[in-house]
Specification:
Length: 258
């Protein structure tokens, strides 16, 4: 094991691709709200594709670390990765160490998409057809089977995107107004962002950010030098996949009913 600042390396490696994908997605968000459109069908299309990635990540993460109810209350010393010699068990332990229930997005995404479908049920078939997001989900299944430590890159990038860029996107979406989202004025001004935008809301996000950074740092020295590099390499691959997914939405949007 080595003691190096993986978090700093990750931030440096992804700084430019993160900024690029954020700009790319913001430009697409602008096309999903008034005055470009008068209903949230394009937003539903986009979020349904990205939802597949979060479903895949969280499904594979929990499948690999086991049901948190079985281990989350154990003493931390009993599940410390540093005392484990077997590589699989070491990686399982460090991925348990990163587990934060408050970050998980699947439940919010299910609720948001159900709400969006209720607004316009005619779009249900389009939202659930085979798509590029499902391909990434399949990739995550294969990734964990072979190199589960690479989930560290996916965990950091996907949840950082919400914690560090989500507030800006959420504010942009809320400007579309309550009628656009089929909400009341009181609902859209509520402290907790309601469906269909609950995906973008993380309670006490400043506290969660601090804890998340701390946990990423805590597993830093529990990875080998080779694993460090593989995580950095994977982080760049992630942004390529996210860019491909966003660009694929341009083609889907051409035939998506609006």
């Amino acid at each position: 094991m080595i003691e190096e600042d993986l978090l700093l390396k990750l931030r440096t490696a992804i700084k430019e691709p993160h900024a690029a994908i954020h700009r790319l997605n913001l430009s697409r968000i602008a096309l999903c709200v008034p005055p470009q459109v008068d209903k949230p069908t394009l937003y539903a299309l986009g979020i349904s594709r990205y939802a597949e990635i979060f479903y895949g990540l969280e499904e594979e993460w929990v499948k690999f670390i086991g049901d948190p109810a079985d281990w989350i209350d154990q003493d931390s010393d009993d599940r410390s990765p540093s005392c484990l010699q077997d590589r699989t068990e070491r990686v399982r332990a460090l991925l348990r160490q990163l587990y934060m229930p408050e970050l998980l997005r699947s439940r919010s995404l299910w609720a948001d998409l159900a709400f969006l479908e209720s607004i316009d049920p005619a779009n249900t078939g389009f939202l659930h057809g085979h798509n590029a997001g499902m391909d990434v989900r399949k990739y995550l299944h294969q990734l964990v089977a072979k190199t589960p430590h690479l989930l560290v890159a996916w965990i950091w990038i996907l949840y950082s995107a919400i914690l560090y860029g989500g507030r800006e996107i959420r504010a942009h979406l809320l400007k579309a107004g309550p009628q656009f989202w089929d909400l009341s004025a009181a609902e859209i001004k509520a402290k907790r962002t309601p469906c269909p935008l609950s995906f973008w809301h993380i309670e006490d996000d400043a506290v969660v950010k601090t804890k998340f950074r701390s946990l990423i740092t805590s597993v830093d020295c529990l990875l080998t030098r080779e694993e460090h590099q593989e995580i950095l390499d994977e982080s760049l691959q992630i942004f390529q996949k996210l860019e491909q997914l966003t660009l694929s939405l341009d083609e889907e949007a051409k035939v998506f009913p609006q």
